Amino acid sequence: MTEVTKRILVTGGTGLVGRAIEKVVADGEGRPDEEWIFVSSRDADLTSSSETKALFERHKPTHVIHLAAMVGGLFKNIRSNLDFWRTNIHINDNVLHSAHESGVQKVVSCLSTCIFPDKTTYPIDETMIHNGPPHSSNFGYSYAKRMIDVQNRGYSEQHGRRFTAVIPTNVFGPHDNFNIEDGHVLPGLIHKVYLAKQSGSALTVWGTGKPRRQFIYSLDLARLFLWVLREYDEVEPIILSVGEEDEVSIREAAEAIAEAMEFRGELVFDTTKSDGQFKKTASNAKLRRYLPEFQFTPFRKAVKETCTWFNANYANARK
Ligand SMILES: NC(=O)c1ccc[n+]([C@@H]2O[C@H](COP(=O)([O-])OP(=O)(O)OC[C@H]3O[C@@H](n4cnc5c(N)ncnc54)[C@H](OP(=O)(O)O)[C@@H]3O)[C@@H](O)[C@H]2O)c1
């Protein structure tokens, strides 16, 4: 029997990305020398340094995928910038420092393309994270996430640690948060289409429908996370995204969902609602230098799978 040499602790293991990693590992991408431990806030409140320390003492991980975060869509961010800043700063400092103190060999944390400077040139790349203020709608979340990169550099320079981060674009898939008020745009739209279909009403999309986004399917992101954990040796972060040519408008995303859900009603755009950042086009050139052959699931296929999951799991989905 192969000896287990890697104990991989996944914080945020019950969220959208954590569940996707769990599925990919269970479906055959896990290796015999790896033990995977998925934890949620029930195992430890990571805003508490003592609970975080106890979690690390309990599981003694050699590797960590750090996903736990206060996460939300545009409108929740606008309402709660201070909470996003404080919660995420505490979680990240507790996790990274416990990992350092307990001798974890490698940590992969999760940033996001929505933390990049608002005023920038496109496409955005990994060198531009700190080049100016983020969009005002999510400054709390953005600055807290940027500080992970600062800490990773610090742990590397001062202690020789291999702590790094990935930068995904908008993620979606099964187990997302489908809450219309607080969730991200795509799961929120899926939920709205579900309800509009039930009531026979129009689908109201918030904003003009013109902003553009690169969406990544959670199961594709999960496969990339495994590669980063095993193969990627830089401390500098890496953008995990579909190509620039795969960016879609919110209108196109809504149309893809309507088609997947067989919704035949009208699409209405409520232009009194904020659009958020117009675009945040990211370059995946660095990823492509490492993994030129990686195949992303086509957007419409991934949307279809997510809608099918939501329809089948409506009663228990987060909403
Ligand atoms: N979703 C996106 O579009 C997107 C895009 C780019 C980057 N990201 C990043 O990807 C990572 C995962 O996001 P996600 O969408 O999977 O998030 P999610 O579905 O909202 O899940 C969040 C996870 O964090 C855990 N968590 C939250 N607060 C915690 C606390 N105080 N102590 C311990 N655990 C806590 C939750 O545990 P419970 O289930 O117990 O609450 C849950 O497992 C995050 O770092 C996020 O910033 C997400």
From TrEMBL:
Oxidoreductase: present as a keyword of the record? yes
The NAD-dependent epimerase/dehydratase domain covers: 8-243
Q: Which UniProt keywords apply?
A: Isomerase, Multifunctional enzyme, NADP, Oxidoreductase
Which Pfam family would be a valid example here?
Epimerase
What would you give as a GO molecular function for this chain, any one?
Answer: GDP-L-fucose synthase activity
One term under GO cellular component: cytosol
Q: What is its EC number?
A: 1.1.1.271
Q: Which reaction does it catalyse?
A: GDP-beta-L-fucose + NADP(+) = GDP-4-dehydro-alpha-D-rhamnose + NADPH + H(+)
The pathway entry for this protein reads as: Nucleotide-sugar biosynthesis; GDP-L-fucose biosynthesis via de novo pathway; GDP-L-fucose from GDP-alpha-D-mannose: step 2/2
The record describes its quaternary structure and partners as: Homodimer.
Family named by the database record: Belongs to the NAD(P)-dependent epimerase/dehydratase family. Fucose synthase subfamily.
Q: Which protein, by its recorded name, is this?
A: GDP-L-fucose synthase
